[in-house]
Design brief:
Blueprint: H1 5-19, H2 24-38, H3 41-52, H4 60-73
Helix pairs in contact: 1-2, 2-4
Length: about 70
């Protein structure tokens, strides 16, 4: 699995697109839970670095989910 920021941003936004059809209060937690369960540590390290650099290209709810996931991991 590629850990390039462009690929990870695309994948994270795809997850976000899926969860947009869910109840609003479950979107951000759903995105975070999915990424936590299915992304390996290298992917997480790379996307967290991208988030720290501003998170360019990430949808707002995806960015929020990643920030909350990163905060819980710290």
């Amino acid at each position: 699995m590629s850990t390039s920021p462009d690929n990870l941003v695309y994948m994270a936004n795809q997850i976000g697109t899926f969860f947009k059809s869910q109840r609003p209060e479950t979107v951000v937690p759903g995105i975070a839970d999915h990424i936590k369960k299915f992304w390996d540590p290298r992917m997480l390290k790379s996307i967290y670095a991208h988030v720290d650099a501003g998170g360019a290209g990430l949808e707002p709810q995806v960015l929020e989910a990643l920030r909350s996931l990163k905060a819980k991991a710290a």
